[in-house]
Structure formats: structure tokens, C-alpha cells
Specification:
With 493 residues, the protein is α/β, with parallel strands linked by helices. Among the domains are: 17-80; 152-428, no CATH class. The chain is 39% helix and 13% strand. The chain is built from 15 helices and eight strands. It has helices at 21-28, 31-44, 52-79, 83-111, 119-123, 131-145, 189-199, 243-250, 256-271, 291-300, 304-307, 370-375, 377-393, 397-407, 478-485, and strands at residues 151-161, 208-214, 221-226, 283-289, 310-317, 331-337, 357-361, 417-428. The chain has an eight-stranded mixed sheet, with helices on both faces. β2 and β3 (221-226) form a beta hairpin. α6 (131-145) packs antiparallel against α8 and α7 (189-199) packs antiparallel against α13. The longest helix is centred in the N-terminal third of the chain and has 29 residues, at 83-111. The chain is globular and about 70 Å long. The two termini are 53 Å apart.
């Protein structure tokens, strides 16, 4: 019986196993001398003994060289899909070796009796054995130890309510007025993506989220548009959509952004008159870009009563959430661009860890900032619109049924809706000891929210095929050659 070919909804993207290790060095090597020169020129601008005009020229030249290097590196990774995953996995291998050395050192300290306070004995079982976990754990540990990652208590505040009079609420003391223009309920899935485009420009301290209540009674459901990472600095700020949240979510830990999303949904449900015992049963559709896709998958990976919210549908755009296995009852559509490097930050080339539908698109390189274009929320909005057009033309198959299931969450003509906007921000914890490696910072989590844990069991190497025994070939001999030439008949009498 001929096997039926599997339908593919994405472009073919090369996996790291298709590249040798030398290929990464060959591609990145041209950038290293230029990067070293940029650092050297930038160091001249910090020398106080030089004249001010020389320092200014060095500073300007360093900025120009940095821009050129950035454009060159973006073109390299844009033109070579899969090279980004290879880079992450190479760093993971280095982190795994470092963790192995640290584990051996900790065992030696415990064995010789130098562990007086028992700290090494307690840390030894916590050292990760897998490469990617060791990389993320090392970043989180060092960032916390030096006092850079200090996210604290999470807060939410109402920005706008369509049923209130006036709709826009007065900003809190010290908070700027939110700039929100898309206040209507979404009619199609691409409208939720377009809402994310605007939420990036809300000019609030923390990320703004759009929550829409659709229907009433048993038909009530909720729509949530969630932005991605807004702060890429290696230091915690009042904005919880930062690097610390990304690292925590990658490790399966609770993060400030996931806590804030749950609190915002609960606040919206309470404002709409939903009883507290129904908060974990109300169906929710989350459309998340980048980090928003990670938050949605993390909340959907555990039962609703543990997460505090019933995530029933996910539309993820450019989110590195392939290491998270969502529940089988959650309808998930993940959209990736082949040239987008952000989804590869999870270090996994697998595009289907569960029953999600993965859709890919191959882009044409723009003239400038190609990686920004590949990961931009507006580019993903265009991709979702093309996807909706494709589904309307070919309304069959698993992709069309998944898109139709997500479309069912949206309001029908004449259905009652209520649109609310909330702001999420966090406090900054004060280190216990400034300038030391004994700095401790802990996340205060909500009382009704448990840590989102999920298995991360992906092989670090490509699976090897079993060896097949081959018959040995006999070498031709002189006697065999002569016997083949001379006819010989054995006398059986």
C-alpha cells in the first residue's frame, strides 16, 4: 500500500544537523575582526587623556562600524535559515561542559569536607545536565547574583473600559497616559494581531494588554492580545516583558509576565461580574507575539485549575515555544517565518512537539534590518491575513479546521462585546548585598497561581539509524579466475 504523503503547511527550513560545526565558524568568522576593531575604536572614546574632538570622532566611527556589522550579521542569518539554531545549540554544548566541570568541582569540595555550611551539597543536585537548561540556568543565576535581574511583585491597572463612562481611566500617579486607538472588538484573527501592533506603541510603563469579553452566560468567552519582549536590556525594569521573563519561561519557571496576565484576566472577569469560582473555567483565546506566545503556551501546558485560566485556543506568531507541550485539548496555530531567528532561541529544531498546527512563510530580504523585518509584529500580521485568505480559498484539512476553531471565539454579528485594556508592571527588588555574589532576589507570585512546569525532553543530537549487517564480498583469487575460464565438470560416479 502506497503511503500517503503528509501535508506540509510551512516552507522547508534546514535543521542544525544539516550543517557541520565548521560551517558556523566559516559564516561568523568575517564578523569577528570587524567586531574587534569596533570595540577597539569604541575604547578610544573612553580614554580621558585624548582630546575631546578625537574622542567624538572615535565615538562616531564606532557607531558607524557597529551599524555596518549589525547589517552584515543580519544578512548572514537571514540568508541561512537554521544557522541561528546551530548557534544556540553550540552555546548549549559549551554550557553543558561548563556545568560538568562545576559539578565535578562541587563534588570535590563536598568530598574533602570544605563545604562547611552545606551550600555545595544543596547546589549539586540543582546543576542541570542538559545543555540548554545549563545555558539558561547559568544566565539566570549570574544575572540574579550580580543584582541585574530583580523582578518583584506584579501589579495590574485598568486603562480603558468600553462600558465605563468615561471609557479611559485616569492614569495612576507617575504613569503616563496610554495611547490606545484600536478600541473595537476584533472581527477576524488578523485584527488581534493588528491590536498587538498598536499595543507596542501604547507608551505605558509596562505592557498593555487588550481583553475582550464576547457573549454572555454559557456562551461567554474571552480574547486576549499579548505583546512580546519590550525591554532587551540585561537589567530588570518596571516593565516585566523583559529578558528575565524569557529565561524563566524557557526553564519552566513562573515569570512576572505570566503572573500579570493571569491577574489582568481575573480583574477583567471580576469587573464583568463573573464569579470567582468560574475564573478557571472561562474559555480564553490568546493571540501572542514573540514572548506572548511563550506565555500562552506556558499557561496552556498545565490544567486550568493550576494555571488559574482556561486557555482553550492559541494563535502564536514568532514565539519560541516549541519546547513547551500544551494540553491536547488546546487548539494551537503557530506561525513562523523561516528567516526569523527569535523562534530558534529555544534551541530546538522540532516544529511540532504536540498537536499544534505549524505554518511557515519564506520572506524576501529587504534592503535594511532584515531580521527586524522577519520578526516584526506587522510582518506577522500580514502573514496571518494571507493565511486567512488561503483558508477561505481552501476550507479543508487540519489547518482550515484549526483556523475555524479559533475563529469561533470571535464575536458574531450583533453579539454583545466588552473591550478592556490593562497595564502590567512590576516592582524592583532591593538586593540583599550590593556588589557581592550573595545577592538574592525572589519573585513574589500570586496566591492562586502555581508554577508552570512542563517536560523538556528533546535529544541534543540527531537520532542515529541502526546499523544493518551487510554480506562480506569475497576477493577474487587467481584460482577462482582460472576456474571461471577453464570448463570443469566433476565426475559424480
Amino acid at each position: 500500500m502506497k503511503r500517503r504523503p503528509r501535508r506540509r503547511y510551512r516552507a522547508i527550513r534546514r535543521v542544525p544537523q544539516a550543517y557541520p560545526g565548521f560551517y558556523l565558524r566559516l559564516k561568523v568568522a568575517p564578523i569577528v575582526p570587524a567586531l574587534a576593531a569596533t570595540v577597539a575604536v569604541g575604547a578610544l572614546a573612553d580614554i580621558s587623556a585624548l582630546p575631546e574632538d578625537v574622542r567624538a570622532r572615535a565615538r562616531s566611527l564606532s557607531d558607524d562600524m557597529g551599524t555596518a556589522i549589525s547589517e552584515q550579521s543580519q544578512r548572514i542569518f537571514f540568508d541561512t535559515p537554521g544557522l541561528d539554531t546551530l548557534l544556540i545549540r553550540s552555546l548549549s554544548h559549551v554550557a553543558r561542559r561548563t556545568a560538568t566541570v562545576g559539578r565535578a568541582w562541587a563534588r570535590a569540595v563536598v568530598a574533602i569536607g570544605a563545604d562547611r555550611d552545606g551550600r555545595m551539597a544543596r547546589m549539586l543536585p540543582l546543576i542541570p545536565r542538559r545543555g540548554y537548561d545549563a545555558l539558561m540556568t547559568g544566565m539566570l543565576t549570574i544575572g540574579t547574583a550580580v543584582g541585574a535581574l530583580r523582578g518583584g511583585a506584579v501589579h495590574v491597572a485598568l486603562l480603558r473600559d468600553s462600558d465605563a463612562d468615561p471609557a479611559f481611566q485616569d492614569p495612576l500617579p507617575g504613569h503616563p497616559e496610554a495611547q490606545i486607538r484600536r478600541v473595537d472588538a476584533p472581527a477576524v484573527l488578523s485584527d488581534m494581531c493588528a491590536d498587538i501592533d498598536e499595543l507596542y506603541w501604547s507608551r505605558t510603563i509596562g505592557p498593555a494588554v487588550k481583553i475582550t469579553r464576547v457573549g454572555e452566560g454559557e456562551a461567554r468567552r474571552w480574547l486576549l492580545s499579548l505583546v512580546g519582549t519590550e525591554s532587551m536590556t540585561w537589567r530588570s525594569t518596571n516593565n516585566p516583558a523583559d529578558v528575565e521573563t524569557n529565561i524563566r519561561l524557557m526553564l519552566g519557571l513562573e515569570a512576572s509576565m505570566s503572573v500579570g496576565v493571569v491577574r489582568a484576566i481575573h480583574a477583567a472577569m471580576e469587573r464583568d461580574g463573573v464569579p470567582a469560582d468560574r475564573w478557571a473555567r472561562e474559555p480564553v483565546l490568546i493571540c501572542g507575539h514573540s514572548q506572548g506566545g511563550i506565555v500562552a503556551a506556558a499557561l496552556a501546558s498545565v490544567p486550568p485549575h493550576e494555571a488559574g485560566v482556561n486557555v482553550a485556543g492559541i494563535l502564536s506568531t514568532g514565539g519560541p515555544n516549541r519546547r513547551i507541550r500544551v494540553r491536547p485539548d488546546v487548539v494551537t496555530v503557530a506561525v513562523y517565518h523561516d528567516q526569523d531567528v527569535m523562534p530558534s532561541l529555544d534551541g530546538s529544531p522540532d516544529r511540532a512537539p504536540d498537536r499544534r498546527v505549524t505554518v511557515g512563510r519564506s520572506l524576501v530580504r529587504p534592503r535594511t534590518r532584515p531580521l527586524y523585518y522577519a520578526h516584526s509584529s506587522s510582518t506577522y500580521t500580514e502573514t496571518v491575513r494571507l493565511l486567512e485568505r488561503k483558508v477561505r480559498v481552501a476550507p479543508w484539512g487540519r489547518l482550515a479546521s484549526s483556523m475555524a476553531a479559533l475563529q469561533d471565539f470571535l464575536p458574531t454579528p450583533g453579539e454583545d462585546t466588552r473591550v478592556m485594556h490593562y497595564e502590567i508592571w512590576q516592582d524592583i527588588l532591593t538586593p540583599s548585598a550590593e556588589g557581592t555574589w550573595d545577592t538574592v532576589a525572589a519573585l513574589e507570585r500570586a496566591s492562586a497561581y502555581e508554577p508552570a512546569t512542563y517536560p523538556i525532553d528533546y535529544a541534543a543530537e540527531a537520532p542515529r539509524l541502526p546499523r544493518v549487517a551487510r554480506p562480506k564480498r569475497r576477493r577474487p583469487s587467481v584460482l577462482g579466475a582460472l576456474s571461471a575460464l577453464v570448463p570443469f565438470r566433476k565426475d559424480r560416479s
